[in-house]
Predict the structure.
Amino acid sequence: MRFKVDEATIAALPEAERKEAQELLAEIDKVLTENPLHGFHPHSVPQREFFEARTPIQAAFAGNRFGKSASLVVKSLVQLVDEVDLPDHLLPYKVWGKGEPCFGRIVVPDLTATLEGVMLAAFRKWSPKAALRGSRFDQAWDKQRRMLNFKNGSWLQMTTYEMDVDKFGGAALHFVGYDEPPPQDIRNECMMRLIDYGGFEMFAMTPLMGIGWIYRNIWKRREHPHITVIRGSIHDNPTLDQTSKERALTELSGTDDPNDPERRARETGEFAHFGGMVYPDGFNGCLMDPPSLDRVRGWDIVIGIDPGLRNAAFVWVGFDQDHRAFVFDEQLLQDRTPTDYVKAIRSTNAKWGIANPLYVIDPSARNRSLVNAESVEAEFQRLGIYPISGQNQVEPGVQQIRRRIANKMFYVSKDCRGLRDEAEEYRV
């Protein structure tokens, strides 16, 4: 980082003062050239909170140009270099590498555009020369192994989401940083590498991909004591001028509407509910407390059956005399058989005292099983459950649920977490 210098002001100084100022600027430039970390200061409260985070999961969900990548790079370097290489104001952020080497990994979307085009340049910009092996970035960077090496024995791997997941095994790590959202299987493999040291993960991303596992497992669980979530805005970066920010946001999102989901994501780091979301707020507007047994016994019960090749889902829906629908229970079974399905259904029926429900099944259950050449529907019938086939047209079904929600004719129990999560991710 270089300080902005007002050359006109320097030139207007008396000769002696001008010479003194120029000598001081030259000394500052020399210090920053040798150790650029002296020039990095968190520019805002959200960025400082990211550096202060100590939880196993640390996530910065921020708008474009907030400084996510710079934060990821500098916080990584703080762990990798010796304390003597850190300016005093960055020392409080050091967790690892105190008297022993630190091992880290940065994972980015692709090799050419992100790793070579962005991340390598950022590490080259911020790395203290004296801390690098050979005191030069070109000597410290092992291109073949994609590893940055330090004099103290610390190293940093750089990998991409393009690589096979089996490439993410290997040595124990103190930290992993993700630049933009990683595929879940890659994240899971990286997380296993942190167990030995009790290390931490850092997520730095603009959540443009909308709803997904990061939204479900991190954002929705942000109050968990093991998770720190920081929200940052493009407006937190004091180096950007307002005109340029507005122009960039409009061009990138294609609109000047401040409420447009993509623009909001790019501006404030808000998760974008776009791209065909059926229920943008899920079922959060129609939740109810779990019903009592007496209340359920007063309803007409319909059990919805959706048997998949791997996942089978079941929902229990009660209808009162005013035809209001109440989803009050659910079951999700993985890699099970129709016999297991029937056992789960009967167990749940017994729990609620349900005697004569109506069973409605996805019409695809008539397809033959890949295992025993018998359809799932026929297997249900053999086991004493006789479902009728439901209507499988998506658009009319969605419209009916939307109308019911709008007219307060559809409710979902707070206990039906699986259905609620599905609703928040359901898109057409």
